[in-house]
Design goal:
By secondary structure, the chain is an all-alpha fold. The chain is 74% helix and 0% strand. It contains 17 helices and no strands. The relative contact order is 0.21. It comes from Plantibacter elymi (nom. nud.).
Length: 415
């Protein structure tokens, strides 16, 4: 099939929920613990830094998506506005980083939903079910994500409510707060917390399936981002005031611990169920983005063209979805994924460096925001990239270079 196209089936509401499904995932239930381990109560400052950088990225992504509303997100923007190598860097970083992220989300889901001895088989089964759902159509993905996001937001409302009106609210934690983290520690926490903000990119990768994308995508990105910031700030403040910095850093299930300490032990099981649902929702949305970016890269020849196929009935990039799903299942079953979040953050931050540079290159009539926004976003991403753990930086750099080498070889052979 020549120049296969996806179908525009999504409105603003569906696009918002897909973005929220990506952000309201494993991050909000898990990311505050490692951030507290690094910076203590300084994670609140890190959260502000991550939010500011993410806001710049969201603004750049929104104006780019309005100009180039096709599948692929920043991969497409980089190719069109800067050059093929920049586009490849963005696409490769996104596909590899988010593949690792998807595996981590699947394992996190299984940790909440199954006994320890069954966690990896259950994680693999979750991946298989998500792949099937995505292959059946983006409207099914959006519908499933909408249900999960609503459930997760209700659970998070219970967590925040326990810290406001719970019988033991405010009785612990406050005295142990202290903002004595070093600037480097605060930046490291910002790099980790940025992982939780990256979901709005999924809206841009669906640009070929959104109705009236020039208006819908910027609006959906803005709404999803604002909701996520409000929720994260509320959850972070309540968690710190309830558990204290040390308690938050040492808790493996911090939000369940919050409701227990605040005198609502009945809600702990509900929070665990919400965490599992959040991870599953994020997995759905992440797979939608990975598959469509791989599809876009195959359409231009940066990945094997066999992946450049749209299902004749369901109008989805099913071959790309199936391949990514197979890789994630292998990772889930065989690989130690404890460093996956750091590696994924490196790839996502590099992806947004390209997005900001592409937005900076837009002509005056195409830009909705000052160029300073894109410049600040690019610099912020670079800074956060290189404050991540050294292993994540090293592995991420090697994988990016391997991808560049593979593309160079393929181009040479094609000549």
């Amino acid at each position: 099939m020549s120049d296969p196209r996806l179908q525009r089936r999504l409105g603003t509401s569906a696009a918002v929920f897909i973005g929220l499904g990506s952000m309201m995932g494993a991050g909000v239930f898990a990311v505050f613990q490692p951030a507290a381990q690094v910076a203590g109560a300084g994670l609140l400052i890190g959260l502000v830094i991550a939010a500011v950088v993410a806001c710049c990225n969201a603004m750049s992504s929104a104006q780019l998506a309005a100009q180039l509303p096709s599948a692929g997100g920043t991969y497409l923007y980089g190719r069109e506005l800067i050059g093929p190598w920049w586009g490849f860097a963005a696409g490769w970083s996104f596909v590899v980083g988010k593949t690792a992220s998807a595996a981590a989300m699947a394992v996190a889901f299984a940790a909440y939903a199954a006994p320890a001895e069954w966690s990896r088989p259950v994680a693999a089964l979750a991946v298989a079910l998500v792949v099937v759902t995505n292959c059946l159509g983006v409207t099914r993905t959006a519908t499933a994500t909408r249900v999960i996001v609503v459930a997760v937001l209700l659970v998070l409302a219970v967590v925040v409510g326990s810290g406001v009106i719970g019988p033991d609210a405010g009785s612990t934690g406050v005295a142990s707060l202290g903002f004595d983290a070093s600037p480097l520690a605060v930046l490291q926490s910002a790099g980790l917390l940025f992982f939780a903000f990256a979901g709005y990119a999924r809206i841009a990768t669906l640009g070929e399936e959104v109705r009236d994308p020039a208006k819908t995508i910027p609006r959906a990105i803005g709404i999803a981002f604002v909701v996520a910031v409000v929720v994260y700030v509320a959850v972070a403040v309540v968690s710190l005031l309830t558990l204290g910095a040390d308690g938050l850093a040492s808790s493996t299930r911090p939000l369940a611990a919050v409701v227990e300490v605040n005198g609502w032990p009945w809600a702990a099981a509900l929070v665990r169920l919400g965490a599992a649902a959040a991870c599953l929702g994020a997995l759905l949305a992440v797979f939608a983005g990975i598959g469509r970016t791989a599809f876009a890269m195959a359409r231009t020849g940066d990945l094997p063209r066999v992946l450049d196929a749209v299902h004749p009935r369901f109008a989805t990039p099913y071959r790309a979805e199936l391949l990514v799903g197979a890789v994630v299942v292998v990772l889930v079953l065989l690989v130690d994924l404890r460093s996956a979040i750091g590696f994924s953050s490196f790839g996502v931050l590099l992806y947004y460096v390209v997005a900001n540079v592409a937005a900076f290159r837009q002509t005056r009539e195409r830009r909705r925001y000052p160029r300073a926004v894109s410049a600040f976003g690019a610099v912020g991403c670079v800074v956060l990239m290189f404050t991540l753990p050294p292993t994540s930086v090293l592995v991420g750099s090697v994988v990016v270079l391997v991808g560049f080498a593979g593309r160079a070889v393929a181009l040479r052979q094609a000549q």
